[in-house]
Every structure is written in structure tokens, then in C-alpha cells.
Amino acid sequence: MKKKIAITKGDGIGPEVVNEGIKILKTISNYTDIELEFEEAPVGGNIWKKTGESLPEKSFEIIKKSDAILFGAIGMPDLPQGVAESAILRLRQELDLYVNLRPIKLYDQLKDRCPLKEEFIGDGIDIIIVRENTEGLYANIGGFLKDEVAVNSMIYTKQGCERIIKYAYEFAKIHKHTKITSVDKANVLKPSQMWRNIFKDIGEQYSNIEQENYYIDAFCQWLIRTPYNFQTVVTGNLFGDIISDEGAFIVGSLGMASSGNIHPGQVSLYEPIHGSAPDIAGQNIANPIGTILSVKLMMEESFNMQDIGKEINKAVEISLNKGRTIDIKNKELKTLSTQEMGDLISNILKNQLKV
Ligand code: NAI
Ligand code: MG
Fold first, then answer.
1. Among 274, 289, 325, which is best to mutate for testing ligand 1, by the most ligand atoms less than 8 A from CB?
2. For 146-157, what is each residue's pLDDT tens digit?
3. Is 73 a pocket residue for ligand 1 (Cβ < 6 Å)?
4. Of 152, 135, 327, 149, nearest in space to 236 by CA
5. What are the chain's domains?
């Protein structure tokens, strides 16, 4: 099987962590039936400084013709407001990447890095957040009135709610989850009331999956109070943005968290959830695991290669017992650079795939 991957290295630590993601992709290409081709498609601040465009048409063409995108964060402190964000929002809108999948998984090896006490970790944390990624407050409907009034509208369509909620139920079913949680603010917001009704209606086709509703404010505290209670969590764009960052920190480091921006069956974009981290850029100390786990998601969600996903997961688990980047450091283990962490994981993966 041949697949084309568009590579967007991005800004700050983007290129450093994406290079480690490419190592994993090359290992997969060398040691399995899947053959991967790469093409760089610059997006973000670095290319904006050269060309005045943060999403040049040439890059967008490469992206549209690819099977999947590995994306490094974009944005830098010296860029005008909105330059980087407009590129991300355009990609999401024009590729109609309506699913934002964000796993929140605490590896056993990283329990020492979890900010929660043992009693709150319970049997462990393994949650999938399914965030709607094209509508809501981020649909970019609004503006300023004489610089004195600012407005954005929270737009939800029936079709938009149905497709993301349906995706979440199917995800829960495929992964044998026994429960699905919907997060909204239906006590106040009209779009949430429509969302809640649709969640209930679609749920009638999934009677084996327990269904529950939370308001976003309450959910924020339950996520750190009983994180072991959640499996698939489906929510709108704004609430998903917020709870996935909360979730990323409880699994040890922002550098561990991966994500997929997905349109099932079409070109989809995979990226760590962290930003370009200008405070540590250029030092070869960033954690590449969020990017490597984004490659795992790419294999599973875009290429239906669950076996390779499992191997990547195993390689990450083994690596965490051997050495770590500074953000997840453990005094008994060697502290590794970004490149060393990537080499370690790709060598473990190579040995697994060789047999
Ligand atoms: P950030 O995620 O870049 O950094 C937050 C903190 O986490 C920093 O202390 C950073 O050093 C640390 N961190 C992040 N990734 C890490 C990693 N892999 N290993 C170790 N430590 C890591 O968020 P911040 O500082 O708010 O944003 C920086 C820039 O990134 C901004 O311009 C922002 O707009 C952009 N951004 C871009 C995103 C994207 O392209 N998808 C997503 C989020 C932010
Ligand atoms: Mg965010």
C-alpha cells in the first residue's frame, strides 16, 4: 500500500518534534508493507516571513493531494495576531476536518508525573475526547462594531451535530467502550439544547452503551476528580478545546498529548496538541512523544492499521522505562534530548517490526 504524507514542520519546536515523527514514519515504511512518500508543505510563521502567506497555495495543493498530514505547531510571539490561527482554521474548514480526536491516556510509567493524587487516578486514565472541529464559536461568524462591540456567534447545525455525535458513538462501539459522555451547557445555551436532543436521539441506536450528560463547568472538576470514570467524551468546539488541555496536563506533560483533525475517508491532519513552545525552541529538549503518538493515530484512523498503532504504543511504553525528555524526567533514568528520545522509540519499534 502506497501513501503520500504531507509534512508541515511549522514554527518553534515544530520542526524538532516533526523530525522525530518522520523517523517513526520511515521505520514503518522500511519494515512493513505500507510504503510512505513524503512531501514538505510549509505553513505558519516561518513561511509567512518569507512569502507573506501563512498558508501558501502551493503548500495547500500538496496537502490536498496527500493521504494524511503530519503537522508541527505554528505561531510565534513576533507574528501579528491571527496570522498563524487563520492558516489552521482555513485548513480545518476547507478540508472539513470535523472530528478532533484527542486521547487522554496516562501511561503507568508516568504515574509519577501525574499531578493528581493516587486516589484520583483510580484504575487509570484512558479517555478519548471527540471534539466538534468546524462549528460553534470557532465558525468565525462575528466581528467588531466601531471597536466598541465585539461579537462571535455560536453556530451549530443539525447536520454538524449529527455527524460528530454519530462518529463518537461509532468510536465508542468499535473500541468496546461501555459508556459515552456528552458535555454541553444545555442549561443556558440554545445550541447545547439542540446538541443534547441529538445525542439522546442517536443514542437510541446504541442501547448497549451507557449514556450520560454533563454541563461543561461541572465536567471540568469531574475530569480531575474521577478521570477513571470516563471513556468516550463527545463535545462541541470550545468546550473540547478547553477540556483537552486540562486532560493533557493530567497525563504528565503537554508534550505527551496527540491529536487527529479528521474527515473520515478523506485527507486528515495529525499533530501534537502543544504549540510551538518558543521558550524551549532550538534547544533539542522538547518531548517528541505527542508527535509520535499522532503518527500512531494516523496509522489507526487514516490507514486502518491498528496493528502498527499497537506497536507504536508498545515502543513508547518501553522507552519510558529507559530514558525521558526533561519535561517528564525521572531521576533514576537518563535524561534524553528530543533526537535521542526519537531514536530510542524508533529503534525499539524497528526491533518489534523486524520479527
Ligand atoms: P505551548 O503548547 O507552545 O507551550 C506551553 C508550555 O508547554 C511551554 O512552557 C512549553 O515549553 C511547554 N511545552 C509545549 N510542548 C512541549 C513539548 N513537546 N515538550 C516539552 N514541553 C513542551 O503553548 P503557548 O506557549 O501558549 O503557545 C506558543 C505558540 O504556539 C503560540 O503562538 C500559539 O498560538 C501556538 N499554538 C499553536 C498550535 C497549533 O499550531 N496547533 C496549538 C497551540 C498553540
Ligand atoms: Mg487549544
1. 274
2. 989 999 999 999
3. yes
4. 135
5. 1-101+255-355 (3.40.718.10), 115-250 (3.40.718.10)
